[in-house]
Fold this protein.
Amino acid sequence: MKKIGLTGGIASGKSTISKILRRLGAAIIDADLEAKATLKPETKCWELLVKEFGRGILKPDNTIDRKKLGNIVFGKPEKLKKLNEIVHPFVKERIKNKMAEIETKGKHKAIVLDAPLLIETGFHNLVDEVWVVDVDRETQVQRVMKRDSLSREQAIARINSQLPREERIKYATAIIDNMGTRKNTREQIIHLWKTKVEREIN
C-alpha cells in the first residue's frame, strides 16, 4: 500500500487537501492528533514532559497545557530540541502501529500521513512519497494573519520558526500549488492520485 507524506508550511492549506484525499480513498493519519494522544495524563510521554518542564505545564485536570508548553519552548532552540526528543519517538511509534493496522485491514488505496513537521521529525522516512503543499511567502503571511488574528510581525515569526520553504521543497516527490482556485487544487490532487496511486494498484 502506497504511503504518502503530506506536508507544507503553516496556513498552506493541508487540511483541505487531506479531505480531498480521504474522499478519493486514502486513510488519513493526522500527526497532530497522534501527538495529542501521546500527551494524555499518566502516559510515559506525559511523565517525561512533567519531569523535564515541571508541573506548571499542567491544567487543573492534569492534562498538558499545550499553549503553556509552546510558550516555554518558542524561540528557545535547546528547550524545543528537548521537547522533540521526548515526544517524537512516541508519536513515531503510534504512527507506525496505525500504518500497520491500516495495511492489515486493506480497506484503503493509500495511507496519507498529514504532518506539518514531516521533514523536521524524520517522519518522511516512514513514507514512499512526500507531497508538499506550496504557497508563496506573502500568501502565507496574509493567511496566517487572517486565520490566527495576528499582526504581520507575529505571522512572520511563526513562519520563520518552521523549515524554510526552499528546504521543504528539496524533499518533495510532488509539489501541490495551492495558490489558485479550489478547482485548480482539486485537479492537481486527482492527477497525482491517478498517476501515483491508482496506476500502481492497477
